[in-house]
Design a protein that fits this description.
By secondary structure, the chain is of the alpha/beta class. It contains 22 helices and twelve strands. This is GPI-anchor transamidase component GPAA1.
């Protein structure tokens, strides 16, 4: 530690080696991080899933569910009832069914004030029934939820899910072994209704003030331990896909995922993860490629921080949850149909296992990656990859700091003697100049020596100020700008409303316009020609980016990994260049990874894959519109659900990008030599 604090401390062999080979070491560490991640798909690294909690095994016993005919009747009645409610929840029918089954039945009203733009109010209603545990005192509970989708919804119907929910409730009411309450919940408006219900149940507010009015609940059960969200799109299912990604990249306990997949396998149901089945190939490469595709599908989905189902909103409350989604036959898997009888048995097995839990999930992993539904990668195996990539930034910062300290301590004893001798010469020159002014007769004689003495008087080099205070000030100013950008969408929308511009365009063009203005910040940086001050700023920016990657990886590894892979090489390229041409190249490369440009490029690439048959112009305009909507959705998610992806990008990552942008204007070696010539 003395090396980082005491400039007089001698550098050891390790430090000297680091300063000499740090470029090579950084490249090796970066490549090692990528190789570590690619190796995760190998069966030599990942392992088979298993039950860590033996209390979950009772669900694997013989099933007793036989109410499939009742489920079909509910399904037929619900389809007729949905025709009367084109765009709302048929809550009178649902309330009546819950009451007929003997459940404690309640409704939950909530409202949403428009997040952006003109003030508008939207209302919604949830319906839920509670089966009180006959063998306990309502201290713990489980949830079976279904998002209701009216006939006008653009999404696939969930009417079969409601039918099997009611049939399973009828089955559960007759059983006496329940030790936990079971809440049967049907929500309106997709995730919005679920978020309002959870906030009301726990009496908290997760989003911004004055947006989501969660309302009050008339009835409650015990502490919620686990939840299953059901989305069946047909009454005859070909395969089941299990979804686990939650808000901000959170995941449920691995035991819950294992439980659902094992019971599906026990009942002979073809199940997938990320719509990909489990295949084993004799060829190592084919097996690795298949697992890597599944792993990348999970990484790209988790990195967005957006839940892929209503289950994703439970995780922040310490509730383990996942979604079981049933699809009709689409050419994959077996063509035989899974009807209500099998689905009822799956629900019975899952809830009987959860009912047997004596404590919360804690035995298995909460941080993992899945290359398939029967194999997993633990945090101990995948975290070294992001640690190596972030370590590159720390190594570069350390090397920069050591080089900076070396420049400070390079003055030798001989240079000190020379400096002292020069100071004596300057004093003598001052005396001779004064004598010349007071004795004009000798002016002609001393004309030549006078010129030399004047040059010597003004040849004393001015010490370069450290300007550390200015560096810290610029660092805080850039982050203050980020905070302003984080809170600016509503003002952009107000300006757009004044000129009758849609909010999507107002926000998109507003951020792009501000980004263009921010590109001139280096002009106002006073120390941009001070190489030492710019080196200090470089160290701070590298440390911040590395710390950001590590902190984000603790909760959302996928987001940190993708960010690190993309930005680390470009951050390493930014350095004091030899020529102005290299500085220009650095600026161009760093502009290519501006957050707004990266978002646009990612959406355009995704659009080109989804609509490959369209022309380039059509894809471009479709991609720009999709980018505008994605930006608005990110802002809305942050204000309603508490998704922190938008906040992190604007408040932390964009200011860090600005710091590196300022560094691209560091003085080149040519400019430093010219400055020395001017002084001479």
């Amino acid at each position: 530690m003395g090396l980082l604090t005491d400039p007089n401390c001698e550098q050891g062999k390790l430090t000297k080696a680091l300063m000499k080979y740090y470029n090579l070491v950084c490249v090796l560490f970066y490549l090692a991080g990528i190789v570590c991640f690619l190796a995760l798909a190998s069966r030599e690294i990942n392992v088979n899933t298993y039950f860590s909690e033996n209390a979950l095994l009772p669900g694997l016993v013989k099933s007793e569910f036989r109410d499939d005919s009742l489920a079909r009747r509910f399904y037929t009645e619900l389809q007729d009832e949905m025709k009367k409610y084109d765009n709302s929840l048929p809550y009178p029918w649902l309330l009546a069914k819950f009451q007929q089954l003997g459940l404690d039945t309640y409704t939950h009203n909530f409202s949403l004030t428009s997040v952006l733009g003109k003030s508008q109010k939207f209302t919604g209603k949830n319906v839920y029934g509670i089966l009180r545990a006959p063998r306990a005192a309502s201290t713990e509970s489980l949830i079976l939820s279904v998002p209701y989708r009216p006939p006008t919804s653009p999404h696939l119907t969930t009417a079969p899910s409601i039918a099997i929910l009611l049939a399973f409730a009828n089955f559960a009411v007759k059983e006496k072994y329940w030790a936990k309450d079971i809440i049967f919940l049907i929500t309106e408006h997709e995730q919005l209704g679920m978020q309002a219900w959870l906030e009301a149940y726990h009496d908290v507010q997760c989003g911004s003030d004055g947006i989501l009015a969660r309302g009050d609940l008339e009835g409650r059960a015990g502490v919620i331990q686990a939840a299953i969200n059901l989305e069946l799109h047909t009454d005859k299912i070909a395969h089941i896909d299990v979804k686990i990604e939650g808000l901000n990249g959170q995941l449920p306990n691995l035991d819950l995922f294992n439980l659902v997949t094992k019971i599906c396998t026990k009942e002979g149901v073809y199940n997938t993860f990320k719509m990909r089945d489990n295949k084993e190939f004799r060829s190592f490469y084919k097996d690795w490629a298949h697992s890597m595709n599944t792993l990348l599908a999970m990484v790209t989905s988790q990195a967005t921080g957006i839940p892929d189902g209503n289950h994703g909103l439970f995780h922040r409350f310490g509730i383990e949850a996942l979604t079981i989604e049933g699809y009709p036959y689409n050419g994959k898997g077996n063509n035989w149909k899974v009807e209500f009888l099998i689905m009822g048995r799956i629900l019975e097995g899952v809830f009987r296992s959860l009912n047997n839990l004596l404590e919360k999930f804690h035995q298995s992993f909460f941080f993992y990656l899945l290359p398939s539904s029967n194999r997993y990668v633990s945090i101990g195996h995948y975290f070294p990859s992001i640690a190596a990539i972030a370590g590159v930034l720390y190594l570069r910062a350390c090397a920069k700091w050591c080089k900076l300290q070396k420049k400070v301590t390079t003055v030798t004893k001989e240079e000190d003697d020379e400096q002292n001798q020069k100071e004596v010469q300057i004093i003598d020159a001052h005396k001779r100049v004064q004598n010349v002014f007071f004795n004009k007769e000798k002016l002609e004689e001393l004309k030549n020596s006078f010129k030399n003495d004047m040059k010597l008087c003004y040849s004393c080099p001015k010490k370069e100020k450290s300007q550390i205070g200015d560096v810290i000030l610029i660092f805080f100013i850039t982050h203050f700008i980020g905070i302003i950008l984080m809170n600016s969408p509503k003002y952009m929308v107000e300006i757009g409303d004044y000129y009758n511009i849609p909010k999507e365009r107002s926000i998109f063009y507003g951020y792009n316009l501000i980004s263009c203005f921010l590109l001139v910040i280096p002009v106002f940086v006073s120390f941009r020609k001070n190489s030492k001050a710019m080196a200090v700023l470089n160290v701070i920016a590298l440390l911040e980016l590395g710390t950001l990657l590590i902190c984000v990886a603790m909760n959302n590894f996928s987001l940190a990994l993708l960010t690190g892979i993309l930005y680390t090489p470009f951050a390493l390229l930014i350095n004091n260049s030899n020529t102005k041409l290299m500085s220009t190249v650095q600026r161009i490369f760093w502009l290519l990874v501006h957050p707004c440009l990266v978002l646009t490029l990612v959406v355009l690439i995704n659009t080109s894959f989804l609509f490959s048959n369209e022309t380039f112009q059509e894809i471009f305009y479709r991609g720009i519109n999709a980018t505008q909507q994605a930006l608005v959705y990110g802002i809305v998610d942050s204000m309603i659900y508490g998704n922190w992806l938008f906040n992190i990008v604007t408040a932390i990552f964009l200011p860090n990008w600005l710091c590196f942008w300022i560094l691209t204007f560091s003085p080149t070696q040519d400019s430093e030599e010219k400055d020395k010539l001017k002084l001479e």
